[in-house]
Amino acid sequence: MNPRRFAALISLVVLIGVMLVLATIFPMVLGFVEMAARELRYLWWLILLVALGIWLVWGVGKKPQP
Which residues are within 8 A (CB) of 40 and not within 5 positions of it... i.e. 6 or more apart? Predict the structure, then answer.
């Protein structure tokens, strides 16, 4: 496993860990996420917010590949 994949794996594990801790601390948010998963046709903007967050974390600030 090369260092880049290892870093990506560690980042994923940390992200999942943070999500679990936040869901434990704020159970109302977990209820909102469950409701949003059931009602995505009404809350389609949630998908856009997640995509924007992923883009901000991994996409902004990278130099374009030549």
Answer: 46, 47
Cβ within 8 Å of residue 9, ≥6 positions away: 1
Cα 55 from Cα 23, distance rounded (Å): 23
Domain ranges of the chain: 3-54
pLDDT digits (tens, 9 = 90+) for 14-66: 999 998 888 888 888 778 777 777 777 666 777 888 888 888 888 776 666 66
| Beta carbons within 10 angstroms of residue 27's beta carbon | 9
Residue count of the chain: 66
Q: What is the mean pLDDT of residues 4-18?
A: 91
Global confidence as pTM = 0.47
The Cβ-side half-sphere exposure at 6, using a 13 Å CA radius, reads 3
